[in-house]
Write a structure and sequence with these properties.
The structure is a single chain. This protein is an all-alpha fold. It has a domain of 277 residues: Rhopdopsin 7-helix transmembrane proteins (Up-down Bundle), CATH 1.20.1070.10. The chain has a two-stranded parallel sheet with strand order 1-2. The chain is elongated.
């Protein structure tokens, strides 16, 4: 008979894990800007642990549970375990899909009706099949069995239709999908690196020069002075033409006596009295060289291209992100495998159901899953956390 202290320790461990998982799920929702994953996982986990805690009324002795509560607990436990596995699988598929197919970019973590098959369809079908055979064969009776919660007793094979067997099939399917996804991600990374190297081999990059504020102001002042002098030259030229026309029309008899030199002298004298004082040597803009007939611009040389934010960044290694996804998927597969070990062992060896088996361990890992995988509270494995989630939770360092 399993000691009550061991049952109580297991129940407290699951409860604390559920409480600690909620802040992590909140950080995950803020990081990916999507709430459906965190809400479904957190609510389902809370409901399952709540039914475990209610069992304390009967000192966590399943043989003393009322029949109605026992059947309800069996249905809820099987449903919740499949919902948790379904939402974890949906999150992994959504993340991989957004990376493999960029057209889904902004909708990669958004809700899709296809996830209903994993989160609702599969749990309902599994629970219906398991409970149908369990009730028909009388495998729901807990007399003579001491466990923390109600489960399938004898015969044990209907449990294979629930969380005792089907999670192993899901684990194998997700492992195959993971191998395909990692290979495709590696191909995309190699293509991105090759494209970047091709660009850098064809374009000469030069560091952007630093400009001094005083030099900039001096250049602007010189440009304005040149523009003012050009405007003054244009006005003087117009004045010369107008004065010459007025003199020739008003005093035609004295046209010969008025020399160009005297006219220029008078005009220059008047202009000297004005406020315009051009520089000693006029500035002339250099004439551009004509383009060749064939349009070849190589005569101008090659100007360096400065680095701008619009250019693609150098290829960064995606191995860190890939390892985080692999760690998440490895944890998901491990929990599904551990969930089925005790049932498969008992069915294959024709043994009685164990009072505390691998399924109890898997449920405790499920409660602590978000904390262990994303590593925001327990800093155990460096590749297991998402920096954006930890940054949001560590509010005391903001």
């Amino acid at each position: 008979m399993l000691p009550y202290s061991a049952k109580l320790a297991w129940m407290i461990l699951c409860t604390i894990g559920t409480i600690c998982s909620w802040p992590v799920l909140y950080g995950l929702a803020k990081a990916i800007n999507s709430w459906w994953i965190s809400v479904i996982y957190g609510c389902a986990l809370t409901i399952m642990v709540l039914f475990f805690d209610i069992g304390m009324i009967w000192r966590l002795n399943s043989s003393e549970f009322p029949l109605s509560f026992c059947l309800t607990q069996m249905v809820v436990t099987n449903m919740v375990m499949f919902i948790l596995g379904g939402v974890s699988c949906a999150y992994y598929i959504a993340t991989i899909r957004s990376a493999l197919w960029p057209k889904h970019g902004k909708q990669g973590i958004k809700w899709s009706n296809a996830y209903l098959l994993l989160i609702i369809g599969l749990p309902l079908a599994s629970t219906f099949l398991q409970m149908s055979f369990t009730i028909k064969l009388g495998a729901y009776k807990q007399t003579g069995f001491d466990s923390v919660f109600c489960g399938v007793t004898e015969p044990l094979w209907p449990k294979l239709l629930g969380y005792g067997g089907l999670p192993l099939i899901i684990a194998v399917a997700t492992a195959v999908f993971t191998i395909f996804a990692v290979r495709r991600l590696q191909i995309m990374l190699d293509a991105h690196r090759k494209l970047w190297y091709d660009i850098t081999n064809q374009i000469e990059f030069a560091p952007r020069p630093t400009t001094d504020y005083q030099d900039t102001m001096l250049l602007q002042t010189a440009e304005s002075a040149v523009q003012s002098y050009g405007e003054a030259q244009r006005l003087v030229s117009l004045s010369l033409d107008a004065a010459r026309g007025d003199v020739e029309s008003a005093v035609p008899s004295r046209v010969a006596s008025v020399t160009p030199c005297s006219s220029l002298h008078n005009l220059s004298k008047e202009s000297s009295e004005s406020s315009i004082s051009p520089p000693s040597a006029p500035l002339q803009a250099p004439r551009p060289r004509p383009l060749p007939a064939d349009g070849d611009v190589s005569m101008y040389g090659t100007a360096p291209i400065y680095r701008t934010p619009t250019l693609p960044p150098p290829p960064t290694s995606l191995f860190a992100e890939i390892w985080r996804l692999l760690f998440f998927q490895a944890a998901f597969i491990a929990i599904n495998v551990v969930m089925t070990v005790s049932t498969l062992r008992s069915v294959s060896g024709n043994h009685r159901p164990s009072e505390f088996g691998s399924d109890h361990v898997a449920m405790a890992l499920t409660a602590w899953g978000p904390v262990l995988v994303f590593k925001t509270i327990l800093m155990a494995v460096d590749i297991g956390h998402f920096p954006s989630i930890r940054k949001r939770l560590m509010f005391w360092k903001r």
